[in-house]
Amino acid sequence: GDMMSAAMLAGGFHGLDQRVNDAPLAYLDNAATTHMPLSVRQAMDAFEAHSRANIHRGVHTLSQRATDAFEQARTTLKRFVGAGDAHELVFTSGATDALNLVASGLSDAAHAVPVLRPGDEIITTALEHHANLVPWQLAARRSGAELLVLRPDAGGRLHPDDLARLVGPRTRVFAVTACANATGERPPYEELLALAAEAGALTVLDAAQAVAHDVPDVSRLDCDFMAFSGHKMYGPMGTGALVGRRAALEALTPLRFGGDMVEWVSEADAGFAGLPMRLEGGTPNVAGAVGLAAAADFIDVTGRDRIDAHVRALRSHAVQRLSALPGVTVLAPDATRSAIVSFVARGVHPHDIGTLLDQRGIAVRTGHHCAQPLLACLGVGPTTRASFAIYNTHAEVERLADAVAQALEVLQ
Ligand code: PMP
C-alpha cells in the first residue's frame, strides 16, 4: 500500500530489506547516514572493475579513464549544487573535512596575508553541529580573532534581526547550518548569509543536512563556501565536498601538502597548483567521488521536489503522533522543510527508548547529536531523533509512534 516501499525496492536499497530483532527493519537514522541505492553501488563497482588507477599523472589508458571519471563526477556535482564558472568544487572526506579546510585555511598565520587577524570576529550559531563550531574555536585561537555565537530564541529559531545586531566592521566570517541536525530546524539561511555578506564577511553554509532533499543552489546564495557529506545523501561514506567561489577558495591555505597539489618542488620550496587540485593533496577517493556523483544523479532522477515533499510529510506525521504522547516534547515542532524529528520524554532517558525501539527493529539515534550547545540553549538534555529518507513510509512512522508509546508505558 505505501508508495515509498515501492521506491525502496525500485531503488535497490537492499540493506534495508532485512529483519532486525525479528521485525522488519525500520531505518529512521538517515540524518546520521542514509542507505545507498543500487545505482550508486554499481557506479562505484564499475569504476573499480574497469578504470581503477591513480589519476592526474598517468599517460596510460586506465589512468586517463580514472581521471575522466573523477572530473566527470566533479562536473556532475557542480551542476547539482548550482555552481557556475565563478565556483569550484573540491572533493573532501565529508562535511567535517570541508569545514576544517575552510576554518584552518582562513586562520593560517604563515599565509602571506592571513584572512583572520587579531581583533577580527568570526560569527557562528548555536544551532551548529560540532563540525561547524569546534574548527572555528580553533581558528579564533590560532588567529587571535574573537568567536561570537548567534543564539536562537526559546523555540530554537534564528532571527536575522539578532544577526544584524551582532555583525560589525570586524566581522570576517559568518558560518551557519542549512538545517540543525539535533532539532530539524531550518534557519532562514538565505537571509542570514545575505546580511553577513553585506557586512563584508565571508559566508559559510553547512549543507550536510540539506543536500539530500532541499539542495541549496550556491549561485543564488550569498555563499562563499558550502560543505556537504556524501553519506547523508544516498552516497558513500568518507566522501563529500567543499564548493566555493573561486576567489574565496584561492584565499585558503591548503590543509594537506604533498603530491598532486604542487606545480614544482625544489629542496627548499614549492609552487602550488591551481584550483581545485591545490586543495586536494594526495590520492583522492576516486570511487567515492564517482559514487557521490551517482547519488546526486539518483536524487535528480527521483526528483528533488518529490523527495522533499515525501520527507516533510513523514516529519509532519511523526510530529503530530509523537507530540500527542504523554510527557513528550518535540523540539522545533514547526520547522519547515525538515526531515528530522527530535524529542524528549519527561523522566525517561533517550538511550532506554532507543534500546526498546531497536528490539522492535526500529533504528533511531539518541544522545546529543554532536550539538551540545544547542541542547544547552534549549534547556534540554539528550534527545531521541528519528530522521527520514525517500524509502521511509507512513507505516514506519506509525510503528515508531506506537513503539515510543509502549516504551514510555514501560519506562515512565
Ligand atoms: N554538519 C551537520 C549539520 C551534520 O549533521 C553532520 C553529520 N551529523 C556534519 C556536519 C558532519 O558530517 P560528517 O560526519 O559526514 O563529516
TrEMBL record:
Q: Which GO terms describe its biological process?
A: cysteine metabolic process
Entry's InterPro entries?
Answer: Aminotrans_V_dom, Aminotrans_V_PyrdxlP_BS, Cys_dSase_SufS, PyrdxlP-dep_Trfase, PyrdxlP-dep_Trfase_major, PyrdxlP-dep_Trfase_small
**Gene Ontology MF, one:** transaminase activity
Q: Which residues form the Aminotransferase class V domain?
A: 27-400
Q: Which PROSITE patterns match?
A: AA_TRANSFER_CLASS_5
Q: Which reaction does it catalyse?
A: (sulfur carrier)-H + L-cysteine = (sulfur carrier)-SH + L-alanine
Query: Which CDD domains does this UniProt record tie to the protein?
Result: SufS_like
Cofactor(s) the protein requires to work: pyridoxal 5'-phosphate
Q: What is this protein called?
A: cysteine desulfurase
Record organism: Ramlibacter cellulosilyticus
